[in-house]
Amino acid sequence: MDTAEVILSVLVVVIIIVSLLSNILVLICFLYNPEIRKQVPGLFNLNLTFCNLLLTVSNMPLTLVGLVSKAQPGGDGFCQIVGFLETFLSTNSMLSMAALSIDRWIAVVFPLRYHSKMRHKDAAFVLGYTWAHSMSFSTVATSLSWVGYHRLYASCTLSNPRASSRTQFVIFTVFFHSFTFLLSFIVLCVTYLKVLKVARFHCKRIDVITMQTLVLLVDIHPSVRQRCLEEQKRRRQRATRKISTFIGTFMLCFAPYVITRIVELFPAVPINPHWGIVSKCLTYSKAACDPFVYSLLRHQYKKTCTDIMNRLLKRSSLNASGTQARQPRQ
Questions:
Q1: Over the stretch 201-254, which tens digit does the pLDDT of each residue have?
Q2: Where are the alpha helices (DSSP H) in the chain?
Q3: End-to-end CA distance of the chain
Q4: What's the pTM value of the predicted model, to 2 decimals?
């Protein structure tokens, strides 16, 4: 292994550890807090966490094995199963992010009708579609033997070693990425940009009220006035930063891999093997980023994590005090 492969191997290990711990923490918060379970977005987060965990334990370690050994991990049948899971889970996670963006759009643009438009049965219907959508592409690729070990990515993924079905595979690949990555990206952009538009409108209304109040309060201290103006600026930037994070992480993690898969369809264009692994690592890194982007950095999840830690520390302190009380005096 050269230096680049060693660095990539360490990167995969770090992604596996972070993804495993963070997604398990999201799952613990979901099971611990009944308020999170009652909320409709919690179902979408649960589905996304489920996909990320399965991808972490099933595909990432095998990519590490393929990278280190430079050989296919397991037999052809085993690799086909893993490739089926990789196609299904990656598609499902993209569509889950699109579903979360639709949920936020309805909540912000139609706040008074949100509970009638997005009920648990509506969320279950959306999740049913994401599963059916993901299952259809995965099943077609597997039944046509278009999943297997791909040396460029050191992974069991979409692959077509047969020249006889090259045209069909090209059509399927373009169709697949158009209705997974591109569709999800368009949904994210449309919904979040509408959310940003509404958020900026409300910020302007708040700013107008704040400025009118500052004008009336002529005796207000300059430092208080300055803090109010700074809070206005932070409020405007907060919504933009969140929307940029949602769309930016999606593009940063998925776009390089999808573009590489499209470029790969043209045999005349050479692709660096190290870049193939890097693009695959970027898609895996999304599974490690999602818990922070969609869950753990939210106030409700932070509070739940704090409650869990306090409960564990309290229990450990009670156990320690009980052990000391049972010890005989010398």
A1: 766 655 555 555 555 555 555 665 566 666 666 666 777 888 899 999 999 999
A2: 3-32, 34-38, 40-58, 60-69, 76-109, 114-117, 120-143, 166-177, 183-216, 222-263, 273-290, 299-326
A3: 61
A4: 0.86
